[in-house]
Input
Amino acid sequence: MVKQTIQIFARVKPPVRKHQQGIYSIDEDEKLIPSLEIILPRDLADGFVNNKRESYKFKFQRIFDQDAKQETIFENIAKPVAGSVLEGYNGTIFAYGQTGSGKTFTITGGAERYSDRGIIPRTLSYIFEQLQKDSSKMYTTHISYLEIYNECGYDLLDPRHEASSLEDLPKVTILEDPDQNIHLKNLTLHQATTEEEALNLLFLGDTNRMIAETPMNQASTRSHCIFTIHLSSKEPGSATVRHAKLHLVDLAGSERVAKTGVGGHLLTEAKYINLSLHYLEQVIIALSEKHRSHIPYRNSMMTSVLRDSLGGNCMTTMIATLSLEKRNLDESISTCRFAQRVALIKNEAVLNEEIDPRLMIKRLQKEIQELKDELAMVTAEQKTEALTEAELLQLEKLITSFLEDQDPESRLEVGADMRKVHHCFHHLKKLLNDKKIFGNNTVSNTVSSESKDQDCQEPLKEEEYRKLRDILKQRDNEINILVNMLKKEKKKAQEALHLAGMDRREFRHSQSPPFPPGNPEEGQRMRLSSAPSQAQDFSILGNRSSLLHKKTGMREEMSLGRQEAFEIFKRDHADSVTIDDNKQILKQRFSEAKALGESINEARSKIGHLKEEITQRHIQQVALGISENMAVPLMPDQQEEKLRSQLEEEKRRYKTMFTRLKALKVEIEHLQLLMDKAKVKLQKEFEVWWAEEATNLQVNSPAVNSLDHTKPFLQTSDSQHEQSQLFSNKSSGGWEVQGQGTGRFDVCDVNARKILPSPCPSPHSQKQSSTSTPLEDSIPKRPMSSIPLTGDSQTDSDILAFIKARQSILQKQCLGSN
Ligand code: ADP
Ligand code: MG
Output
């Protein structure tokens, strides 16, 4: 058992704007416990929750400042946890902090660069690397990915559903059995045999999460995501299985509702989030207080799911993500305070070992048979008649196969018949003597002297009878115990079957393994056969792009107008830079991989040649030795030495290149997944933008037929005013200008990367768009009802024409104002 308090780490996010001096300082040397001091500027301190403290100090295990790399975070925080999970302990890493402080960046990673990959992909990579290295055990890895939003759980890994909203995903519910074990009904577990498969699952979940998010639910900031790696290990031949779970948790934004200042519907939702974090806090307070018997885990789904991670059988680590800018200081102080409480919680992690009942039953059955034999041997009447010819033949066959069996544990089972036992000894003796005659001393030497007396059949003496009677009594008791144990196991197995029947996809989440205890393969087979569609799921995973394609709304089904509009949208989208950059990197990596592949092949054939040369040289030397009647020299000659060192060198080169190629493969795979994800996002945002353009067209315009006759834009007079109106219109049509700049330059630069499509237009901005602007005036009107929102290609080209008209006006306007 490992007793440990929850480890707390802090990570400071780089500020959006330039470094703000003097807001915080990190003291690494303070008696080896680093501390973070947050210094409140005077003006803020005055108004800060009824006291005027200016400085707050918090201790952490370690504090990672703005420049900490993802690699460093993984090495220092996640790797030790992953290490104990590999040993068989449960582990949890959770990120806590306000929205935008870097929780997702830390747990999953950034969407742009390979080097930005976060704890989950790095941990997967590490775990699979370790599993490959360790051939002493058999491992099974399963992945699950759960999202909790508004107290509802959703399975992010269900590929059968094309989620366009959270509600489309299968709902996960909590069940508790009489032993208070938590079962998560409907959460699927997917086996991952390689890092690549596991990564595919991560990206599938993330894509589902992104697609299911709408401007209204803002699930990414208001939900908790729990990515779990379930690891089982077993030594060959052993009946003991070890199970461990690693939860990697991206919590909802920790901001307090009072500070967000939102109202109406949004307020209710914000309260919900805070409610579950509030319950988390309550659990943590209860755990950090001594002598508290009741811990309110059951108040929320998240605390129920993470029950083991908080004060239970788990090694838990918290990362407090901090965005230490002036306006975020109060939230950062709350985060640090929360962490200080968390640090008081003690967990007790134990090795989760279980006896595999199938193997156990086999062993018990064997033992029972042996006991029965022994019993029969002592109690049964001694048979005196001679063995028949057939029986003797049968025995000799048994002996032959026993002697030929390479398994050191194989046994010669002849049953409870002393005549047979004696015949076996006779026969074995005969065989040995025969071997001796043929001069095989090595075997005869190993014969122990005891065997020489084996054929004497003395009657059992009184003393021996007594001893045997005692043993018999003892065995009787043992048999009773064993039979009872068997009965119990049988009952357990029946219960497990019953449970599986109730819901086959349900799994024991808290204390139990990812597959029913027993043979891991068996468990997996059960799971697959219970959900036949899951077999197909993996082929879906394999064909990632087609799945993503399906999810994004099928470009091939787009009308020409829509496709053209998509090209315009893509060109102007900020993410297209990332996609292009990644494409370039991918190209480079591909050619690097290709070149490496060629060099590896060359090295391989060179190794082959060198080996061949060495062999040839050997043969020559032997031939020379024979022809000249000389002994073969013991030491290789110089030429051979040289060949050997060349061979070693080539092997080293081969290994280095191979390792690099393997790493490249992972990087390429990751980049492809990042690009797929970016594409899905782009497509999703396009759909939103497109729908809005259609609405704009409905509201503002136009007999589209007369778009050709678009009046030139009203020039010069009041142009500043018009531009700002135009800007607001543009923004309502799905665009916003990044940064603080209002204005002319940004608006003019229609195609500049600075302009981002806005996936989440606010109702407020939509209202604005209905007010008339010069642009709208410039586009002739068409009756509202005549343009449906979605639909035929005619409408699509109407919208495209509308977009183009507006663009050309914007451009003209820019030229005019320059
Ligand atoms: P959260 O999940 O806490 O709401 P995110 O992880 O989404 O926050 O981070 C918000 C933004 O800040 C993202 O664009 C992310 O890429 C960036 N970011 C966060 N932490 C870091 C970091 N340590 N280094 C660089 N960029 C970061
Ligand atoms: Mg996030």
The chain has a mean pLDDT of 74.
